[in-house]
Amino acid sequence: MAATSAVVVIVIGLLTVVYISRKNGKKMDKLLKLPLIGDLHSSPIEKPLANWDCWARQNGPIAVPNLFGIIPIVVLNSYEAATELFSRRSQWYSNRPPSVSMEMITGAAPGQSRFTLMHDYDDHLKLHHRILSPSLGALAAPKYQPLMELEAKQLLHDLVNALRHSPDGSTISTDAIYPLLERTQSSVILALHYGLRIPHPDENILHEIIDIQVQVTHLAANPALPDLIPPLRHLPAVLSPWKRAADRLYAAQVDLYMRLFHHGRDAAGWNATKQALSTAAKYAPASSSSQVQVPDLDLAFTLATSIQGGMETSPRQLLWLFIAALHHPSFVARAHAILDEVVGRDRLPRFSDRAQLAFIDAVAHELFRWRPIAPGSIPRRADRDDEFQGVKINKGVTVMANAWGIGRDEQVFDPALGDLQEFVPERWLREGDAGQERLRSDLPLPVFGQGRRICQGRRVAIDGTFMQVASLLWAFDVEMVDGAGPVDPWEMVVVGFMTMPRERRFKLKPRGDWVLDVIKKEWETAEKSLDKVMGMADIE
């Protein structure tokens, strides 16, 4: 009893100190900088990454700055450093730093967050990676690629309708386009995982999911006091506002994720929920007497982690296509010529065209390099004392790969092919058989991570981006609004760990009446039944 009272007194004292320091200290707007990396350099509010390149160059391939001036953090600024630590030495760099909040909001023990993204790399995580893999890899592509084609058709249809409400029939803004991109990606992800299409941006279930994601992302990007003082997690709810808030968010997540899980389980056609149940039954660890089943709640959170990664990132990533088209318009003209030659003007692009559309794939890959949606990547933890290039890495320190800097590594991306600050799709191309261009496979996409923690949804993200880029460039010209100032691609907004362009008005013009005719025809005749689009329950 005395020990408990002492803990409470200490905690109250700490809270008082923190409260007073926050009241007296300079108040910072958390939306104006990126977590971790935003505290390592000083950039203008409207250009939160303007000084990040300079910082990375000054500090070399591996740097150990002090976060907030007191907490050491290892930043990997080169592909060589990230490959050495995260791939070759992955056994010591595959766990996550402690995140008490992410554990509290999933009802989990230390290192055991039900969000697979934040879970330590142990047998549990390996099993759940194995459970998701059949639904996100190459074997599932024939099921989800027709879905992506369907959603790309609706995206074009929705954009044409939006342009009809524009005073001049062509002016639109990135903020107006974002909900349409969000609906497109959300429908792909939710149909893939649960057999649930989202036909309209105002669907209640979509906004329920987004509201939960906003809360989770904010908490991940803005650590609470228990993240700084872990013993606070043990306080009872009556004394802990963090525990009360975490319990409420956990209950809301359980309710939502289990409803989605049951929808997927009961749907007629194939989806990742059904595949996960089958894979879990096959590979769950066996005891001496019976098969140990993976709890439905754990599966529900694993699937939810996957949809969060897919729904939040891709719409923001694709907004940069319009900024690139305004800032570097030459690639758009080349894309138009290639699409006209390969696809023609009497139908929309398909995945069956992809082998002849290496340049479109290059545009998609360059988007991921030029403006990685998570410039600082998801941090990891060093699990032993180590050293690389003379830099000591202490056990327990947070290690992060600078995805932004790695995408500008001159040892990997040849600057002779184009300034690494510029948008140059050609850097992803090589000459193939008979002189035909092929997409290079030897260049990294650091935004997806490396080693054992590489993003499982990488294939889905790249495929979806390819289809949407191909469809948008097939259909539209992207032009400046009359009298508008030059585009500054450094202007961006921080959302959690992600960046997106600041709002920009521009002209999105159908390339001709033939575009409107084809979009109308293909949307009206499109098969919209998921059972037929993705197939019935053909479980591996």
From TrEMBL:
A GO molecular-function annotation: oxidoreductase activity, acting on paired donors, with incorporation or reduction of molecular oxygen
UniProt keywords (A-Z) are: Heme, Iron, Membrane, Metal-binding, Oxidoreductase, Transmembrane, Transmembrane helix
Task: Report the record's Gene Ontology biological process terms.
Answer: small molecule biosynthetic process
Q: Which CDD domains match?
A: CYP64-like
Instruction: Identify one Pfam family in the record.
Output: p450
- Binding-site positions, heme: 455
In terms of domain of life, where is this protein from? Eukaryota
Membrane-spanning segments: 6-22
Name any cofactors this protein relies on.
Answer: heme
Family indicated by similarity: Belongs to the cytochrome P450 family.
Q: What is this protein called?
A: Fumitremorgin C synthase
